[in-house]
Structures
1.
Amino acid sequence: MAQIEHAYNELEESIENDKITYYFVSNGDSDIIKAIQYQYIQELIGKPVFNLGFGDYDIENDKINDLSESNNGDPRRVFNTVLNSIPNFFLKVPNSMTLVTGSDSKKEYSNKCKEDCKKRCEDNICKNAHRRITIYRNYVNNNFASLSVDYEFFGGVIQDGNTLLENYIVGKDYKSVSFYKK
Amino acid sequence: MNTKEKKSEDLVKVPKHGLLSLVASKLKNRILFPEKVEEAKKFLKNAKISAA
């Protein structure tokens, strides 16, 4: 995957035993420190699986928030920066697999959202949920042919209570996207 | 009449690279998204993968 233009290029990389973290500053309407962390989870098909986490760092309160919507005026640039960290990560841990899920996909998110949401969601289905994984899925769906040259993709579904990572089908509604470098 | 002089906090300008180094050093060894990591562990427990 070639580096995408219109991204933040000044990244601080921190490599530790079981994680690699990237920090950058989003210079939108205000300056916000962003963190991307690849954290080791477990082995699968002989590959170490790393979860991709992403959120804002509040330096004053020393807190990370992966649910905030900073509305800083630069969402595309921020997303491209996250995407650009992926090939960099695979350079450091070439045999690994990356797992992406959405922090707004858990039930607690929908429950919290209801508290002050103005949308009229029917049948208890939160319209704000699953937006993050949808962004990643859309990116894969729109660029599947070119991305598949270098990466093998899997979509996560729940089957009989367990997770199945199946060969990625473009357009299918997945709970997760995972991939490794071919 | 006594007036109190209000002193504003001193501000220091830190270059972006220095700031990010500082943050990286402060957050070293920390799992930044512990909830997501726990969810990922649950999600992958007993996970199967279809043959590529």
Note: Helices of chain A lie at 75-92, 107-116, 131-147.
2.
Amino acid sequence: MKNFYTKRYIPKPSRREYFTIFLLITEIIIFSIVSKYFLTFKNLETVLRNSTDLAVVSIGMTMVILMGGIDLSVGSALGVVAIFVGWMLQANLNPILIGIVAIFSGTVIGAINGLLITKTRIPAIIATLGTSNILRALIFGMMGGNWLTGLPQVFTTLTKGILLGIPIPVFILTVFYVVFWFFLTYTSIGRHIYAVGNSSEASLLSGIHIDRTRILAFVLLGSLVGFSALIYVGRLASVEITVGLYLPISSIAAVIIGGTSITGGKGSVVGTLAGVLFIAVLKNGIVLLGISSLWERAVVGMLIIVSVLVDLIFSRRAEKMRREQLFFQRTQFLKQNIQERT
Amino acid sequence: MKNFLTRLLSNRMYFLLILLVLVIIVMSLISPYFLNLYNISTMTRFGAVLALVGMGESLVILAGGAGIDLSIGAIISLSGVLFGFMVKFGLNVWLAAIGTIIVGAILGSINGVTVALLGLPPLIVTLGTMYAYGAISLVMTKGRPISGFPEELSFLANGNVLGLPTQIILVVVPAFSILQLIMEKTSFGRWVYLVGVNAEAAQFSGIQVKKVRFSLYVLNGLLAGLGAIIMSSWFMASRPDIGDGMELSAITVAVLGGFDIFGGVGNLIGTILSVLIVTLLASGLQLANINTIWQLAVLGLILLGSITINQLFAQVTAEKKQHIIVKKGEQLWKK
């Protein structure tokens, strides 16, 4: 049965996302004025290639943060999967099989996180901090202090390949972002993720299976991490002991800078893509300007705080406007009532 | 019997004491060198910084509002680096030490301003400051350790007073007793608990919630600065990555010590007991020649296990309370 009186709700990117895109564009303009190497095809391709795995993980992180959670274990999870991939590459297995195993093992890690958080009611940050520790120890144990180097370059085409004159990362990012944007905006499960993030109680009362939605978000994040482990191994052809150490923080930074609210329920993958590119371009620009790359983390850290501040200002303004509107409506209503009575 | 067991286990202190005894028994079974008074007192040296930072983190968590401080490790690194620079530029060591504590408090107050006064989410802000402080200490030292501390500083971390490690007797014990006194006997301590239990009620009863939370972040930074001095004296150098991973251990210790992650519940004695457990476990593993890397995994497992137990007991006690309330209601009804 179709209700003709309700308009279908189609979410659009909010002003906050346009703000990040605007920042990204100004950043690009500034860097292309300052450095003549910035706006070359080769440089831009490098920027894109080096941030593909971050961009893919950040999609999953967006979903988890949207639903009101957080995952600090993505870096160690990526490391564990990358070591699996490295071993399988050394054993010369079929690349498709390797891909399936990688995505599957990422999914398993995500499922463990999701189950821990929903079944034992451990807060997401603590649970993933714990699993991150355990997985990090596992990485050390699996590698035994040696790096995996000189791996066969099977997955290199994922990052370095060029199809029809366009680098393959462009295709990967387009496909992933369009699919997940569609998933989050137009499917009911995607909307459930937003609903749970906005108010888990309200969504429980309206019949959404909260636990299942939460587990799903973590599982999807896990499988995306599994896929980006393939990209990582393809990009570097080696796995070092510090693999993915800064991945959780970078991806959280990208999501937050992209305008997703840390308390959940607001944001989109469009903003996240802008956030990822913003951080990637910034890193590249810092190197091009000849500033010590040690500064990079400091700048990202400050950016996180600034963007949360911007978020706060936006939300306070919106709340104020809403309150004023409500007040206006009420006074109108009262006036009408009074007029009718007299 | 079952009743007795649940009572024993649901009291956090008994639970931690049993765990401590268990750790000591298991470790002395694994390694014959473990059970030795001298050995154990030396091992507590390793736990001094963790105890300080763990107490700070516990109080930040206690005050609620999703309070957490991920930047403690970075505060230790940065204030340690500044300590190194101050000594290098010819300042007296003890004056420089006071300066370091002040630096720690200032770094903590930056967290406090953004979290408590502006109302930004603590998790993200301290993640950001963790990034920023860590990077600043790397930039300042260009990644190299600063050495050149005078010999007298070594006394703090490697010396003995009355046969016990100096940093325990002169720093940790006084800090713990002062904090415990503040928490139990002064109105400020009670405010912290009330703010953690119900910030709104606290606000309405005239407690300045923002100021209480702010001062806890400052206190946390101050304790981290103190920890930085001990760390520098331990290595006789200040490294820019000295505090890496400290935030994780601090949170683990606080949660294991019985602090509810949502605030309002916990006691500093629990923190100290869990610091003992964690340090004895870590150094015991080292004595038993088990790779130190597995400490990370053990820490993670303890964290997950302890918080699961926390949640389970919280449920049990909540059910019990409800049961008691229902019973009382029935009695009243009968009257």
Note: The longest strand of chain B covers residues 146-147.
3.
Amino acid sequence: MFRRLDASDGAPAPRTVRITVDGAALDCRDGDSVAAALFAAGITACRDTAVSGVKRGPFCMMGVCYDCLVGIDGRANQQACMTKVREGMAVQRQIGAREVPI
Amino acid sequence: MATPTHSIHDVAVIGGGLVGSAIAYGLRDRVQKIAVLDEGDVALRASRGNFGLIWLQSKGYGMGEYSRWTFHSVRQWPRFAAQLQDETGIDVALEQKGGLTPLMGDYETEARLAWMQRLTAQPAVEPYEWKLLDHRQAADLVPGLGKDVTAAIWTPHDGIVNPLKLLRALHTTFHRGGVSYLPHHGVEKIEQIAGVFHLTTPQGTIRAQKIVLAAGLRNQALSEQVNLLLPMAPQRGQIIVLERTRRLLETPMITLRQNDEGSWLVGDSQEDAGYADHVVTLPVLATLADRAVRTLPALKEVRAVRAWSALRVKARDGFPVYEQSATHPGAFVATCHSGVTLAATHALTLAPMIAAGALSAELAPFSTRRFHVQTT
């Protein structure tokens, strides 16, 4: 569904960053947001909603719609479109409403 | 089916918020042609900015009858919510499992305890169960309660509803018959000609045999036109909304609640800010957030997603106003801060009185006569 635009002539090849998505390794382009990396890998649904449990994926890609929530390195409900990929990052699908540990 | 606006309505309710909508809902069984006249999107809308408590323990200090009226509504709520669900399929998420006012330190506790004792000692107050809980007792009701909450006032009668679902349920009943909902019909002028009310709006004149002024803070200006003196004093409240989480808080607090769908509301700030409901202010939001985290420290990790201001609809003394105009018979005014708590009794008790043409004696204390300067 999504494909990258061709890199402009002369631009250096971007570095590759390895993250995991629900434990599976995924090589991403350095500088991408988590949401862009998921799209580039064909993963369009990243969470199940808190109320009705239906699938949702990144929508606005600019931090306002909150539809791209994922777990990142153990922190729930992080915005995938506002977070850049980092080497070793562990992304988890957000299943329903997050817990509040007391 | 919408009623043509050129005909004469039996009742025109001015105001499509929770007060006007609950009254219109309650009129349907007794009155044929009802119109609800509402403003447009840009209006002072307490019904879309409120906290959604169904709350008894803080009501009626200085007017015991307000406590009694509130208690009456609290007990009508289960029937009201069940009726709405039957008619519309909308569950307004009513929960009446008791509620708390959290108290931090001896000063707050002693002041609130004395206040509750004086409130409930007023002769017109119908006695109800309430208790001062210590930290341990309160923590039994609120897992994870912060140590700064040293005490709490509890009653089994307090509870919550989802106020947006409530407004939607009421409006859904309008579409299903009996009530014409007319947005962009802010009323500018009220005249009574040969017994019939003529309401001037930007969309033309609406005529009705009876009118109900349920226009929130706009009621001050509208009441003057039927010779009722109703001084309003808007009080701003700011609310912070936290992201949805799994349900944790089963006992709501006056300052902190969790919605049926998991969102958290942090609130109960009180400011005199005129009619400025379009801004939030950092000092107030910071105070609200700090107190919420001291109340439930686990919320420190939960993100705020929205904040807003809304204006409480309050007469100058803070109590409800219900009255029929003496000079314009058939014109009723209904104004109160507690459009959620009192929705059940507005629908099930007040609306039938309006349909019958007279308010009962129990509502006499709520007339505007209390604002008159005594001449003797």
Note: The domain at 16-92 of chain A is CATH 3.10.20.440 (Ubiquitin-like (UB roll)).
4.
Amino acid sequence: MSEKKPALWLRIYTFFAYLFIYVPILVLIIFSFNSQKLNLHWQGFTLKWYDVMFHDQQILLATRNTLMIAFVSTLVATIIGTMAALAMQRYHFPFYNTSETLMYIPIVIPEVVMGISLLVFFVLIKFTLGLVTITLSHIAFNIPFVALVVRARLHGYDNAIDEAAMDLGANELTTFWRVTLPTIMPGVLSGAMLALTLSLDDYIITYFTAGPGSTTLPLRVYSMVRFVVTPEINALSTLWVLIVFVILVIGQVAQSRKA
Amino acid sequence: MTTVPINKTVKKFSLVRALRENRVAQGLFLIFPANLYLFLLIVLPLLLVTGLSFLSRGDYGQVLFIFNPANYARLFNALYGKIMLFSLAVGLGTTLLCLLIGYPMAYYLAHAPSRTRSLLLFLILLPFWTNFIIRIYAWMMILRSGGFLDSILQWAHLTTAPLGLLYSPTAVMIGMVYEFLPFMVLPLYTSLEKIENSLLEAGADLGAPPWKAFLRITLPLSVPGMIAGTILTFIPAMGMFVVSDLLGGAKTILIGNVIRNQFLTARDWPFGSAASMILMLLTMVFTLYYTRKAGFGEELLV
């Protein structure tokens, strides 16, 4: 809002706030190269923890599970969420307000409550806990977030371009595929991106809906850090941070190119 | 045999026609999957937990269909009452600290030159795209006895003995604030960024000193951001059990830990359900109170 530079104390304050955010990440990364197993003091540089990690069968399995859950739940939630966003933003139908309230519930209830209620539900209908129940639960908490993001995009949508397409003889379906969807695609993609992140990040709901053999990366890391601290976790975390960083930078660059 | 496919095609055609011509049918068709999904996997499970909270636990951890409102009474006894009050204090404390720490940051972001602004926003989000457990683990490394913080302090000759901050309420608060700070900063930034500069200029022209302009113009106009940030911080902070588990050790028990334990170790599902209902009630009352005071929505969309 203002063009004049913020006050000096504010700049110093913000610098320290960013330090607070980044020191933990930096400590994590630096100590992944520490040769001391206890990882308390710096002993010397090594890459052996990365080697250990790449040969850790449980971590590899957990990575595969995590990616599978994230991929499927993002795909399904993006489709259902985008449909819901279109409905909420462009149509009027019976029980409109009820539908809207329904979309807000997963956002405003504490995750632990959602986790235990899903556990109760799956146990009651005798659905074996595992990858399927985790994926179904991730879809449930992702739908409202996708819908929220896509709706925000639809907010400034000009209906005239749809009407123009139909005046030119396109039917509703063609108009949707050739005009509406390409226009709202950036919104759909950022919705999908959010769903993917939420799924990869989730610990609490996964914890309650997981069964034997369906360990995900967050669950694995949790059980590792619960009792022992080893540089292997640091190596895993560093790799994770690096991959996320590369994906985000590519995303940013692609976006700024388009603009 | 031959009539079946004909019936099917007739039915299909009328459905297609309805979808083509009727906008209400189109809207219902688009919203139906989300409604059905959320009803089955959110509403129904919550209703089951509500029912469960009034039942009894059998001797082997099974659920008995005997009406038992005592689950709720138990939550207000000395032990659990204390845990609930402590959770409320931690939830409110986290929210307040995030607001105090986050407000100047958001203010700075809103006033930074536009080129550095997008970079700074990106930098706030970046660590939070990594995993939640990983971020808490990073704090375990820093706070543990003889860990990074102790090493730094001893190197600077500020302390001689380890502080032993890990497994204390202080560690829990640090972890909570770290975890939820971006949820506060982003909505605050959104509402601060929208404030027109001309309003502040008008204030200055009318003789208001900068501090007064801030108190009378900027602060009131950023209330929607504060509300959205408070909701986004308070709700997850109230239900948190992972931070208290990893950074608080056995000493810090929150209502989230109680719920988790009832479901997975103590196997008293009715009591755990009652605790969940109370937790949900607390956060809902809070959310409703705040959204009544000023609507929220747009600020959530960052």
Note: Chain A has eleven helices and no strands.
